[in-house]
Structures are given as C-alpha cells and as structure tokens.
Amino acid sequence: MSNSILVVGGGFSGLTAALEAAELGYEVYIVEKSPFLGGRVAQLNKYFPKLCPPSCGLEIQFQRIKKNPNVKFLTMATVDSVEGESGNFTVKVSIAPRCTAPSSADLGELASSLESEVADEFNLGLATRKPLYMDTPFAFPNRYVLEPKKLSSADAIKVGASESCDLNEAPKEIELSVGSIILATGWKPYDVTNLTNLGAGQITNCISNMQMERLASPNGPTDGAISRPSDGKAPEKIAFVQCAGSRDQNHLGFCSYICCMASLKQALYVREQYPDADVTIYYIDMRTPGRYDKFMRKAVADEKLHLVKGKVAGVEEDVATGDVIVEVEDAVKGHKAKIRHDMVVLATGMQPSLAGAANPFGVTLDDEGFVVDGEAKGIFSAGCAQKPLDVMRTAQSGTSAALKAIQTVRGR
C-alpha cells in the first residue's frame, strides 16, 4: 500500500488539499495541466470574501509549497491512465516540454524582443502575447514557458541562442504510485459562443464575466483600466446580464452559485473607476446566500447601480457606434424595452472541467460533468469538480478531501 496522495489540479482546492495532507507528513503529488499553479483564482482581479487580489492568497500557498519537501508538483502535465485500487494506484502522467531552464532566469527582455504574437488564453482573447511568457508577475513556478512551434524563423534563431531555452526539449511520461487520488479539476467558463442570442462571440463590446475580471486586473491587457474592447472608450453606461447560459436546459441546467455575487463585485469595479457611470444588472433571481446578502445590500445602496428583474431576450450591436442594445422584459413594470449600453457583461456560468473531457479516473459524472462518486474507490473530489463553489468553500472542500484521502492511505 502506498502512503502517497495524488492531487489532480493546482487551483485553490487542489493547493489546499495538497498542503493539508503534506503538512501532516504525507507525500503529495500535484498534477496541473497548465504551466502555472493557481487555477481560475489567478485570473481574477479580486475574490471574496475579503475582495483581495489573487496574489494575496496564492502567494501564501506558494510559499508553503516551497517550504514543504512533501509536496511535489508537475505542471503542463495530464493524467493518461489510472490502474489499481484504493491504496495501490498506478498513475501514468504525460508532461509537455516547457523548453526553458529550471533556473528561473528572467527572460522578460528576450520575450519582449520577439516579433511573434499569439492568442492569449489567460486573458481570454482580449490580447495577444509572446510565445515566451509568464501569465502573471506572481506566477508559480516563476519560470517562463516557450512555445517553439509558434516562433517566427527570426525569433527561433534569437531564442535558440539563449542558454536558458531549449527548442528541442521532448515530452516525458512518468509513472506514479499513490494510495489515494483527489480530483480538484476545477471549472471552465461556459463557451459564450453558444449564446448567439446574447451576442456572445459576435459583438466586440459584449464580453464575459471572466473577461471583465481580466480587464479590471492590474496585470490584465489594459493594466486594470475597464474600457470597451472595440475602441478603448471608458464606459458611461454598462449592463450585466445574469444567468447567461445558466439555469437553461439548452446550456447549463444548474445555477452557478457565484454569478450574482461576481456581477455585484464587478459593478463596484466600474463604479470605483468611473464615479459618473450608470450600471444596470438584469437578473432573474438575485442569489447572494448567507453573508453575501450584506454585500448585496451595500452594493445596491449605490444610486448609480440599478437592479432590473427581467429576462434578456436578445442583444444586438449598433455597428456605427459599437454600442450594445439589450432587449429586456421588465418583470416588475410589465413592459418590454430596448436599452442602449456602452458595454454588456454576460454572467456566464461555471462548467466543470471534466465536462466533455477525458475521464481516466473511472469516476461517474452527472449529466453536467460533476463528479458524483469515487469515494469507495479511494478517489475523492474537491472544489468545483463537485459543484459550483466560491473560493472559501472551495478551500473547505479541499481540506475535507485531504482528510478522506489520508484516512484511505492509513487504511482506516
């Protein structure tokens, strides 16, 4: 029987689970598919409950990892197969090449000198980046990633001359022996291009809630200035459309839990930057459970922030101005209207990352992609692999999963 624990996913729940187990003396492996740890929280401008920047909570976790020899992490890594049983799993992992030296060399100057530009997934299509990059200044590991196939010929020559880069690094495969597995695979933003009636993916100034987080972030594509993607104009009138794809049998059939709170938070981002801007939130039900109800009351006390209960039927663009026109039925006043806004933010839902993805773990997923079993097999889920959660409850679920995993490897 192995006393080691595998944590799949290096977001907030995965980091919490790994550290809780490691600090009790257990060897833990974190397998993360992206180049950096931190998950979705790293993309946020601020997160609940204290409205801290992501570096606040994540850097503490990163320091704990650095100081704990029981934690070993693999980035750009995916689980290919899982064989065995509770207490004795054999896990095969593929690791993509990072193509840079592990010395944490500062390659910023080299990166900025490159001519090649590629789509920036971290900024959700709002900007481009170089093929030699780090996502954020606080990225962990603090080590650049190089994508050789995306370099121009001239850039390949330039990068090839650097002792810190290896254009020919090959992928690797390793095998891990572990006694239990924690699935902290997290969530992905629902594909907004499915929401054609709301203009998603078609109207430049109609963005998703996660794109709004990147616009508001100091390390985002606009250095924290919330502006219209089409022309950089400061928005004077901005709308948030709730349940964009959530609670809809044609898209996500569940409530994503955090969307109402996220829109209220983002409305405050706008109001803090632009004291004269008008913000309207179109909603079906405003769900701010528990202590978040106090936050809602504080937010709506702002006379420039308006809540309109009503279903948005459609969104269209005024091509001449770039304005976004929202067609909505006000359920309280009982009338339909088309209202012009500078920008619209769609509160798109949280879809579990395992939805539509490979499932080498042998666990059962429900129709939406959430994990519904596995504990009898020694496989435990945490965070948004289970259900939509905020950051605090994600961390709590990580602690719970760690305790269950420890009981498994101890044979109890």
UniProtKB/TrEMBL annotation:
Superkingdom assignment: Bacteria
SUPFAM superfamilies in the cross-refs: FAD/NAD(P)-binding domain
Assigned keywords, A-Z: 4Fe-4S, Iron, Iron-sulfur, Metal-binding, Oxidoreductase
Keyword match Repeat: no
One Pfam family from the record: FAD_oxidored
Keyword Manganese: no
PANTHER family referenced in this protein's UniProt entry, alphabetically: COB--COM HETERODISULFIDE REDUCTASE IRON-SULFUR SUBUNIT A, FERREDOXIN:COB-COM HETERODISULFIDE REDUCTASE SUBUNIT A
Name used for this protein in its record: CoB--CoM heterodisulfide reductase iron-sulfur subunit A family protein
